Amino acid sequence: MPCNPAWWATNDLTRAQLEMFHALGEQIALTPDDRRRALNLDDRTWAAWQAFLADGPLPVEPPVPDMLRRLSETAFNLAVVAECRTA
Fold first, then answer.
1. Domain ranges in the chain?
2. What's the confidence (pLDDT) of residue 66?
3. How many CA atoms, within 13 angstroms, populate the side-chain half-sphere of residue 63?
4. CB contact at 8 A, 74 and 80
5. DSSP readout, the chain?
6. Is the peptide bond before 62 cis (omega within 30 degrees of 0)?
7. What tens digit of pLDDT does each residue of 48-69 get?
8. CB atoms within 10 A of CB 21
9. How far apart (Å, rounded) are the C-alpha atoms in residues 3 and 69?
10. Is pLDDT above 70 for 2?
């Protein structure tokens, strides 16, 4: 396991973003499969990212910068939908 503080920060940030994405998905009642499709991930890749969230190893695909971009874009869209539903 890497001892680099930057690696730990990236790891923590990625987990936090994935947790936020799931919280938004729950707020608007997206199924896990809908969340997977929203991030444009196949079943195997989705499972690897779910394992990561449960303290598993960091998946190789998609690379962390790409996954963070996917999470931020999709989370923004989900936040807009959630806001519209509560308004």
1. 14-86
2. 97
3. 2
4. no
5. ----HHHHHHHHHHHHHHHHHHHHHHHTT--HHHHHHHTT--HHHHHHHHHHHTT-PPPSSS-HHHHHHHHHHHHHHHHHHHHHHH-
6. yes
7. 999 999 999 999 999 999 999 9
8. 22
9. 25
10. no
Residue type, 3: C
pLDDT band of residue 7 (cuts 50, 70, 90) is: confident
**Residue 80 Cα distances to 26, 51, 73, angstroms:** 14, 28, 11
Neighbours of 19 (CB within 10 A): 11
Report the pLDDT value the prediction gives residue 54, as an integer from 0 to 100. Answer: 94
Residue with tokens 């196949």: 42
Phi and psi at residue 26, to the nearest 5°: -65, -40
**Token pair listed for 48:** 């690897």
